[in-house]
Amino acid sequence: MHSRRQRLAEALDRAGAQAFLSQSRSNQLYFLDHPDPSTVISRGSAPAILFSAEKTVVFPGIWISNACRDMLPNCEVIPCDLGDPPPMEQLEAYLKKAGLKKLLSDQLQPQIPGTEIVVDDVGALLRRTKDERDLAFMREAARIADLGIRTAFKAVRPGLTTLEVTAEGTAAMLKAGAEYAVMNPAVGIGTYYLDSGENPRRVIREGDMLFIDMACYVHGYLGDMTRAAIIGEGTPQQRDLLATVHQAYRAASQAMVPGAEGRRIYQGVVDTYAAKGWAKYFVHHLSHGLGLGADRPGINRESGDVLQAGDALSCEPGVYVPGIGGARVENMIYVSASGPEELTRCPIVPELGL
Amino acid sequence: MHSRRQRLAEALDRAGAQAFLSQSRSNQLYFLDHPDPSTVISRGSAPAILFSAEKTVVFPGIWISNACRDMLPNCEVIPCDLGDPPPMEQLEAYLKKAGLKKLLSDQLQPQIPGTEIVVDDVGALLRRTKDERDLAFMREAARIADLGIRTAFKAVRPGLTTLEVTAEGTAAMLKAGAEYAVMNPAVGIGTYYLDSGENPRRVIREGDMLFIDMACYVHGYLGDMTRAAIIGEGTPQQRDLLATVHQAYRAASQAMVPGAEGRRIYQGVVDTYAAKGWAKYFVHHLSHGLGLGADRPGINRESGDVLQAGDALSCEPGVYVPGIGGARVENMIYVSASGPEELTRCPIVPELGL
């Protein structure tokens, strides 16, 4: 049994449960016994997978039934062809036959007579501390994200649209092996819009502040980063804003050590911006977890986890000031026992192709 | 008042309601008074917009507050800065002050004292029949999707991965002005996997059956199509399978006339495949609606709308036969009064760059 499954078996034992019922893609990819489960469950998730110490039972649904049957030789796959009962009915029948009394589950379940199902996402808990396999895939995701950002910023020149620029970065990431890649640009002189107000067909002009936030998935793992730049010299206020974001990033990322309290790191960023009178313009989270999805730890205004060795998270301070502009820098950070390691290797000042 | 809002006002009148409360992006983009609302609400949706005969009130939430304030001069925008009450609280206060007694809403709402809120998505109903503006944007989305598919298939050659091929198509769509583009390839000799079992890093080989399904968004409108091909000569069974899918597509698309019953069109496809013994391998829908999202009409195994002049929908028969392979063809169809018009112009047999 590989060690992820070993740790799951121990968690089930402690809870007095016989199996873990998973409907979340993150947990399914994490626990499946396959060299690259993201090529089996390429999108979405299997309707249900039952992981116990002894075996794995997959209820694949009609769209992925053939693939699971052929590609998961170490699992019991309950086929679902046209006309068969839906997977959740098959699950219910299976549980009755197998006599499983208690399950943990990563999703709220309808009641199934004879089986107690407790919502307890032990998968998310176990996934928090990254193992060697996680790290290898995350480094690859970070490398490909780096390539995308470098390629996009090298393509920047006044007269092109942000779509033309991000097309280059997206293509580079797909060619390098990302199964999915999307770039969310925000561009404009005096850009202080976040999730809105972006016309990606607008032409880039001298004096713009440009930031590109990007995400890709590589073997199911998120690659995610952001870089910001001024097109040309910019104004003194724009240069000050960009330098302040860089300063906030450096301080926050260096504080990401085991035992650090997230809320203190967040407050440090607030203080940096407050010194410029911009505290009210830092409106979003500082960190989300990294990995296969829905990952801990997170750091935002309302809550901040205490960091542990083995955590992986983004660090992305950004500030968006009406009349000046907006900027964000985001790197992927691994919290090792000896301190923060930047999985993102691209310099925080991107090279423009001007 | 533009005619979409005129029709909405009439629908509200008939229901005895004073306003339409919208949380769905599709409806927000449809009714907002702006030349291209997709550049204002670039992603996601505003937490709430209230459309009445007299005016539009936008409750934007903190991330998009500045953009809405600056870019929607014809709307009342309730600003949301850091520390302000959340948008739904502001909505409640607004409703109380304005004395609105009855609203229709496109989403289930928490109770708000003093206002009756009826879940009735009149927006989806009105959006079904396409107007000139819809058609112009949909033709543009179809044109860009065409370009993506042509570019990708021209890049196909044995020895490349599907990622390398779809990267070319994706980049072409972004450069041509799609704000978002994603290609979902499925490749493999004997491919009969649908939403699973795709390793996009697998190298394309002589004898493979390849299909590429693709989606892009252009000014908020979906562009969507699929093409299939055999790499090289293929086997007689593979050629028969591909020809049968083409035949099923032609018959189904030509049947998409006003008054046609969706379930009969669906049955026609089932019969075509049944004649080959493949009925059980046609497992998905035939059609989804097209437009700004969550569009009617749809045609699937369980239900089929009766088609009306002004409808727009996909036509995408596909069949995935163990031991032979899988193929799907998908075009965008506009149901005009005089019959089906293919918005997709790319030939159903794509040109390969072999």
Short synopsis of the structure:
The structure is a homodimer of 354-residue chains. Chain A has 354 residues and is α+β, with helices and mostly antiparallel strands.
Helices and strands, with pairings:
The structure is a homodimer of 354-residue chains.
Chain A: H1 3-15, E1 19-22, H2 25-31, E2 48-52, E3 56-59, H3 65-71, E4 76-77, H4 87-98, E5 102-105, E6 116-119, H5 122-128, H6 132-155, H7 162-175, E7 180-188, E8 209-218, E9 221-230, H8 236-254, H9 262-274, E10 312-315, E11 318-321, E12 325-328, E13 331-336, E14 339-342
Parallel strand pairs in A: 1-5, 3-4, 5-6
Antiparallel strand pairs in A: 1-2, 2-3, 7-8, 8-9, 10-13, 11-12, 13-14
Helix pairs in contact in A: 6-7, 8-9
